[in-house]
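Hello, quick one for you while I still have it in my head. A protein chain has come my way and I'm curious about its shape. Can you walk me through what the tokens say about the fold? No rush at all, and the record is pasted right below.
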Amino acid sequence: MERQDLELIEQLMDRDPELKQYVEKHREFERQLETFNRRPYLTTAETIERKRLQKLKLAGRDRIELILAQHRQKENLQ
């Protein structure tokens, strides 16, 4: 994410519980993926779990982007 997006997220997290939830989940998925990425070899089950986490992380990021776009639109209307 761009620096501007990260700054906006930090500003809005206290006011938007949905955004906060998605950001926290996104960070948790990132930590879990880092654990898998540090390993030189993954079992089949670990590979599947890694792919699942990647998809969840991507879906969460899409939702975060949508929430940010909604906040930007509200700001522009004011």
